[in-house]
Design brief:
Number of domains: 3
CATH class of the largest domain: Alpha Beta
Bound molecules: 1,3-dihydroxyacetonephosphate, iron/sulfur cluster
Number of strands: 13
CATH topology of the largest domain: Rossmann fold
CATH superfamily of the largest domain: NadA-like
Order of helices and strands: HHEHEHEHEHHEHEHEHEHEHEHEHEHEHH
Strand order of the largest sheet: 6-5-7-9-8
Structural class: alpha/beta
Helix content: 40-55%
């Protein structure tokens, strides 16, 4: 019998999906592990066997012995799970359309073009360490593997940059300019020593002199969710509640991170608020599903958790993973049909793994 298509599942309500997901999980037992990123909606998140930020979930994928790794997150996360797991394990994403718009801002053709152009000005392989944020396609991680570069996450970006600058004098950082700038600045690198590479322009829109002088070359990518946060939102909120603590994800703009008391990954944000004194007030710059969960989770301690932006900004691609797709995926697995497998070609996977392994070695 062939795999069942998604269509009939679109008609199921969330309660029906929940029953079916629980029943399928029961049948699959330890052949299945569900990994859930913190930005997943509650109806999906509650089914995760393990939750975490990108680093924690990568480690979980590498350690898991399950036959099926179902990743409730976005595409690059399921790719990393495939690369770091054993060849006989199967990585699956419930909806193939769950990509990451920031990851899409850098592709191999543009990065290779940048490397060629930088090589006209410098000895790129001798002078530049390429560093890719984990929010990137597997072939960019493979590019970093080939060019003695490395991957980073929002948790370990500082350790990774320390390593990168120990290898060579400059870093090409892609795709997120904000994580690069915020981390570089926190390490003491002057803003004047960072330039932005505009991938739509010849030579990134930079002069030879600017490239020779820069320490960090930041790709002109950003997260459409985190770029909504603005320093004025902090000022307005603090005018009303001056005691508020500000916490931001490092994909947020530089001015927001500068005005924040704490900056870190989704896992760091959760732990910081969890460990804070009761009756504290928090203004949080990260995705709405996570902030709403924090609000609900800690209100019994008198903690007030607020979302920074006055407009709703959810990660629309994370939101594509819904209970209907999860029920569809799991029931097909019960029937022996693998749907939406993420399989990175062997050569790319090997080179990407070299860059990921370097990251895991230098991570705290
Ligand atoms: P974390 O690794 O901090 O969870 O971030 C992933 C991400 O995509 C944030 O937008
Ligand atoms: Fe990508 Fe931004 Fe969504 Fe994170 S929040 S997965 S960076 S689009």
């Amino acid at each position: 019998m062939n795999a069942v298509t998604i269509q009939p599942y679109a008609l199921l309500d969330d309660a029906e999906c929940e029953q079916r997901i629980l029943a399928a999980k029961d049948k699959l037992g330890d052949r299945l592990v569900i990994l859930g990123h913190h930005y997943q909606r509650d109806e999906v998140f509650k089914h995760a066997d393990f939750s975490g930020d990108s680093l924690k979930l990568s480690r979980q994928a590498a350690q898991s012995s399950a036959e099926y790794i179902v990743f409730c997150g976005v595409h690059f996360m399921a790719e990393v799970a495939d690369i770091l797991s054993r060849p006989d394990q199967i990585s699956i994403i419930p909806d193939l359309a769950a990509g990451c718009s920031m990851a899409d801002m850098a592709d191999l053709a543009h990065v290779e073009k940048a490397w060629r152009e930088l090589s006209e000005v410098l000895d790129a392989d001798e002078q530049i360490t390429p560093v890719t944020y984990i929010n990137s396609a597997a072939d960019l991680k493979a590019f970093c593997g080939r060019h003695q570069g490395i991957v980073c996450t929002s948790t370990n970006a500082r350790h990774v940059l320390d390593w990168a600058f120990n290898q060579r004098e400059k870093v090409l950082f892609f795709p997120d300019q904000h994580l690069g700038r915020n981390t570089g600045y926190s390490m003491g690198i002057d803003l004047a020593d960072m330039v932005v590479w505009d991938y739509d322009k010849p030579m990134g829109g930079l002069t030879h002199e600017q490239i020779k002088q820069a320490k960090m070359i930041l790709w002109k990518g950003f997260c459409s969710v985190h770029q909504m946060f603005q320093p004025e939102q902090i000022d307005n909120f603090k005018a009303k509640y001056p005691e508020t603590k500000i916490i931001a994800h490092p994909e947020s703009p530089f001015e927001v991170c500068q005005k924040s008391d704490y900056v870190g990954s989704t896992e760091y944000i959760i732990n910081t608020i969890a460990n804070a004194e009761p009756h504290t007030r928090w203004l949080v710059a990260t995705e709405l599903n996570l902030v709403n969960r924090l609000h609900d989770q800690f209100k019994h301690q008198g903690k007030q958790v607020h979302f920074m932006s006055p407009t709703v900004c959810m990660c629309s691609t994370m939101f594509r993973i819904d209970p209907q797709h999860l029920a569809w995926t799991l029931e097909n697995l019960v029937e022996g049909h693998v749907v939406n497998q993420i399989s990175v070609p062997q050569l790319v996977a090997g080179q990407a793994k070299a860059a990921l392994d370097r990251m895991l070695e230098v991570s705290p």
